[in-house]
Amino acid sequence: MADNTTDPAVRPNLYLTGFMGTGKSSIGRELSRTLKYRFIDSDRWIEKDVGMKIPQIFAEKGEAWFRECEKRFIQEGHPAEGCVVACGGGLVVPEGMIELVESRGVLVALFASVKTVLDRTSRNKNRPLLAVEDPEARIRELMAKRDPIYRKVDLAVSTDGRSFADVRDAVLRIYRAHCSGTPVSKEH
Ligand SMILES: Nc1ncnc2c1ncn2[C@@H]1O[C@H](COP(=O)(O)OP(=O)(O)OP(=O)(O)O)[C@@H](O)[C@H]1O
Ligand SMILES: O=C(O)C1=C[C@@H](O)[C@@H](O)[C@H](O)C1
Ligand SMILES: [Mg+2]
Fold first, then answer.
1. Mean pLDDT of 75-86
2. Which ligand is nearest to the CA of 120?
3. Ligand nearest the Cα atom of residue 90
4. In the structure, what pLDDT confidence band is assigned to residue 1 with cuts at 50, 70 and 90?
5. What gap in Å lies between CA 27 and CA 10, rounded to an integer?
6. Which residue is closest in CA terms to ligand 1's atom 5?
7. Which of 69, 119, 134, 181 lies at 20 to 30 Å from 140 by C-alpha?
8. Mean pLDDT, to the nearest integer, of 120-145?
């Protein structure tokens, strides 16, 4: 099987999407080491670009303004190849964003249950959308809205009960298969 990812001339960007806590940032970093690609996290890029942390951006500028920053990041904030990009959890939500990201490289969606997301996000207070009295109810409500959007992404990996290495290898397999033109079946 031809493997384009071993050809330095063909290194399409690998974008990770999915709900908060599915592991885009942590798995993305691991993937970038394995592929010897540059790792970029859209949340960190925006924080640096605007000079504010995410909670401050949401509080002072609002979510819609943040979504515009995410669009600008995809359009002009990173190299055209050789990158693993961990997208912010809501980056693909506005209409047209899945198509925009897919025009820049290979998009893979990570999935996890409400329980897993709650467990993985509860230790950390830097997600303004989950900084509410009942984060579980908020996750349920947001996930119900967003799940149909993430499911539009053709390449998908489930992360529930799987180790970092296992998820990393599953993403690598489908990225490489996709790059070499091999059909990939969905795994939600
Ligand atoms: N497969 C996994 N097994 C165990 N823990 C995991 C796994 N994937 C992620 N985690 C843990 O879950 C937490 C959230 O992961 P991470 O920050 O990578 O999520 P994210 O998808 O980037 O979230 P966000 O959309 O908010 O940026 C981290 O503490 C990470 O170590
Ligand atoms: O899912 C979301 O809407 C978000 C996820 C995070 O990565 C950050 O982009 C921010 O907290 C919003
Ligand atoms: Mg992240």
1. 96
2. 1
3. 2
4. very low
5. 22
6. 120
7. 69
8. 94
> So what's the ipTM on this one?
0.98
- Say how many residues make up the chain: 188
Q: Would you list the domain boundaries of the chain?
A: 4-179
141: its two tokens: 């409500």
Q: pTM (2 decimals)?
A: 0.94
| The residue to which tokens 């050809």 are assigned | 7
End-to-end CA distance of the chain: 25
The fold of 4-179 is Rossmann fold (3.40.50)
d(CA 144, CA 165): 28
Indicate the Cα dihedral angle 187, 28, 48, 117, nearest 10°. 50
Report d(CA 107, CA 109) in Å as an integer.
7
What are the tokens at 71?
């669009």
What per-residue confidence (pLDDT) applies to 155? 96
